Amino acid sequence: MQKEMELLKIWKADAIEALADNERCIAAQMEMIKRMQGIISAVYDHLHESQVALLSFVDVKRELYEDMQGKRKGRHETTK
Q: What is the rounded average pLDDT of the residues 68-79?
């Protein structure tokens, strides 16, 4: 009976140590997730800024195209 009690104490200590290891792993994983979230947020911000810049570029190109089309139409109308 004494031997079984000693084994139970050892198993209990091992279980407590394993729980502590799990808690440390979970804490490390949470820290990693927080860092990843920060990186993802920064990437999102950069992509959004790029999208806004690209849309501005498209607007400028569209306006230039419309101006060129207006000039062409105006030139054709004056030659008729």
A: 69
